[in-house]
Amino acid sequence: MDFTRDRDRDRDRDGTGRRRDDRRDDRGRDDRRDDRGRDDRRGAPRGDRERDGRGGAPRPSSGGARGASARGGAKGGPRTPVGGRGGSRAGGPVRGGRPQPPSRPREYEAQIEERNRARHAEQRPRPPKTFGEPEGERLQKVLARAGLGSRRACEELIDQRRVEVNGRVVTEQGLRIDPEKDEVRVDGLTVATQSYLFFALNKPAGVVSTMEDPDGRQCLGDYVTNRETRLFHVGRLDTETEGIILLTNHGELAHRLTHPRYGVRKTYLAAIQGPIPRDLGKQLKNGVPLEDGYARADSFRVVENTGKNYLVEVSLHEGRKHIVRRMLAEVGFPVDRLVRTGFGPIGLGDQKSGWLRRLTNTEVGMLMREVEL
């Protein structure tokens, strides 16, 4: 009996002296440990997964091209080029997954640049005028530059037959003109197609009607100091007289506006002390004898009356010195304050004292019509 019990005990033990139940327990613990290690490697980075369990160096991949294909994902997806992430088959850098051609040497780049410069610096034969740009400038472009609107709006003016060139109505697009020689009219008004400037200044009292004053007094030139083009005033106003005065660089227009032949009307508002007789206007229209001859007013009317204070409007086409002050003083009503409110078709309006404004194309056209330009 004792012998049989000893034989069964020896059968349950292996060569190491451990029982079979102990070996099963050890094998189960090893399996669970391998499962935990596999789970850890599944979530770890690729470089860590390639390391062995003892923390050694990365193990070389035996997959080769098959591993690269597997990393490319599904069929048709992006694939990492053979040779690693930073290189390509041609040897150049990879940008956006596409291999780039190798860079050229700097000496070769310099030669290409010099060759291009030499080619563009060559004097090419100019074609004859027959094949070049036509002479002149398109009419709609000239009108747009003159401020009549956009090119499209100027083309509509031409289609409506509202534009004349040298007295002939333009009926089709594409006409080329010489802005310095041809006369252009829109709705019967001349358009200043040249580089002329036209301004209206509301001159304050105490300003001298000159562009420069040797005595250092305030003058008209102080209001146009920022202009590159030289301007000159059209006519004059007394130092103490306020109101509108025109400035331009158009010599012919300025000359005609001040010439007695064209008789451009000027309108003034005068503050005087009353009472005034009913026939004062008739006296001024019939003519007042002055030292340099008779002076006549074109129109006269009372604008405002407050007690003895009268505000009267006088219009005349003469331009002699102090003409309005002298006429009213001659009939017994010296002027306390004088303002010029109109020069031909250009009115002062609500323009503030000391302000300079540019005339519109319509106003310029009316001025030119006034003096037959």
UniProtKB/TrEMBL annotation:
Chain intervals with Low complexity compositional bias: 57-82
Q: Which InterPro entries match?
A: PsdUridine_synth_cat_dom_sf (IPR020103), PsdUridine_synth_RsuA/RluA (IPR006145), PsdUridine_synth_RsuA/RluB/E/F (IPR000748), PsdUridine_synth_RsuA/RluB_CS (IPR018496), RsuA_PseudoU_synthase (IPR050343), S4_RNA-bd (IPR002942), S4_RNA-bd_sf (IPR036986)
Alphabetically sorted, this entry's keywords are: Isomerase, RNA-binding
CDD domains referenced in this protein's UniProt entry, alphabetically = PseudoU_synth_RsuA_like, S4
Enzyme category, top tier: isomerase
Tagged with keyword Plastid: no
Q: What domain of life is recorded for the organism? A: Bacteria
Which stretch is the leader sequence? none
Q: Per the UniProt record, which EC number(s) apply here?
A: 5.4.99.-
Comp. bias regions, Basic and acidic residues: 1-54, 104-125
Q: Which residues form the RNA-binding S4 domain?
A: 137-198
Keyword presence, RNA-binding: yes
**What SMART domains does the database record attribute to this sequence?**
S4 (SM00363)
- Region (Disordered) residue spans: 1-138
Read off the Pfam families from this record.
Answer: PseudoU_synth_2 (PF00849), S4 (PF01479)
Q: Where is the composition biased (Gly residues)?
A: 83-95
The Swiss-Prot or TrEMBL record describes its family as follows:
Belongs to the pseudouridine synthase RsuA family.
| NCBIfam families on file | pseudouridine synthase
Record protein name field:
Pseudouridine synthase
The lineage is: Bacteria, Bacillati, Actinomycetota, Actinomycetes, Kitasatosporales
